[in-house]
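Q: Second attempt. The first request was missing the SMILES, so the protein and adenosine-5'-triphosphate are both included now.
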Amino acid sequence: MSQRRVFLRIKDAAIRDRVADALVSPVQAEDFSEAGAWLDALLANRYDLAIVDATGCASDALWSLAESPALAECEFFFLSDGTPNEALDKATSRSGGFHFRAPYDIEEISEAIAEVAAELEVESEPVATPTGSQLDQYGLLVGSARPMRKLYRTLRKVAASEANVLVVGESGVGKELVANTLHQASDRSRAPFVAVNCGALSPELVESELFGHTKGAFTGAHKAHEGLFAQAEGGTLFLDEVTEMSLEHQVKLLRVLETGEYRPLGGSQLRNTNVRIVSATNRDPEVAVSEGIFREDLYFRLCQFPVRVPPLRERAGDITGLAQHFLVYRNSEEEAAKTFSAAALQLLEQHPWPGNVRELKYCVERAFILAENVIEPEHIILGDMEADRDSAYTVPQVPAGVPLDVLEQAAIERTLAQNDGNKTETAEQLGISVKTLYNKLDKYEKATGDGAPQSATDSFNPE
Ligand SMILES: Nc1ncnc2c1ncn2[C@@H]1O[C@H](COP(=O)(O)OP(=O)(O)OP(=O)(O)O)[C@@H](O)[C@H]1O
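A: Got both inputs this time. The predicted holo structure:
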């Protein structure tokens, strides 16, 4: 295994020495404590672990760090004198790192560093071109790229806590898998994991869906209904696309989180709730707050611990591994032994995957159906998102006899991909309600049992 690279910027020599002692395993420590260009070095190189004393750092340097992709690659430990610092808070939360404030408990810092250094030690080298399903797995998540391993470490720690977690990431990166994995790794794993897509709830039904209702609570309430909070009692409630909930309902949700109590519609009794809330959004939550569509107080309640799921483009090395993984599973389900040609793997690896893991999974599904034994580049339907975006609206040549439901699924998949997974925009463009869109997607997911729909583009590709 190659030596781990450690970046050091610690002004106080005594602390620097103690930190160096904590790095018991063989590491290549690079000391930028006195260097002016420390940030350039940190951003330009690939470090495994960085210990950065932020005291006296220029604010723009910290902001550059807070916004850099390097945060996903490396384990960060920040030290500071405790002066409130927004950029440092952001860098700490985006990196999932530690922040120790003066006066330092050097034992605690050394222990934390030694623990992370030991974890890095046992990590295996990334596999360049796996030939089977060879990626690491944590819970339901598959992936060996460094940002994924970092995510696993974070999840392990957060799972042991009771903090509400906000999972942030682009569409299809695996946010629901993260939520489910957190639940399974937590002490609540024997109780239910209940997921709800807030964007799909019709506004009139949100309250009854969340909190339940009594018989006769409103016209049409023919019988009592257990809400999602009751269904998830003792377990985890996953609020997907939480930023899509109306402001009115956000207030109601906030009240429950603050008081731990809710009242079913039509009921007179308050009920206590004991659920852990994991929520997710593919928006930047801070932007959603500044745009006024996400209440700041709710954001703070939900985001006691933020978890960012890296997109595939930050997971070099995982693309072919994930493709192999999906193929291996499909082979075992169908009792087949299909393989990828080297050219097909190369094609997959070079694609930017704007729709992320979900799109990669669908693509492997399609290729599996089209290929006899060896998946070649011609079996891989990637879709040119940029061309689609730029092209004027034209009705494609539709072959005669294509079933309408296949056409419908193809239209939905295309539009979703073109909108980077944004379901509200997709539904609007297709002229259907968001709820109908969710129902249709749900139907496609269930069609193959494992959440991997057989894409309509298998049999209908308008290009
Ligand atoms: N790390 C992973 N390992 C294995 N499969 C994955 C991984 N990440 C995502 N997937 C697969 O990709 C698909 C999308 O995952 P998921 O629904 O968790 O994403 P999401 O980010 O919640 O999506 P959305 O933004 O639409 O809510 C699922 O079929 C899931 O099984």
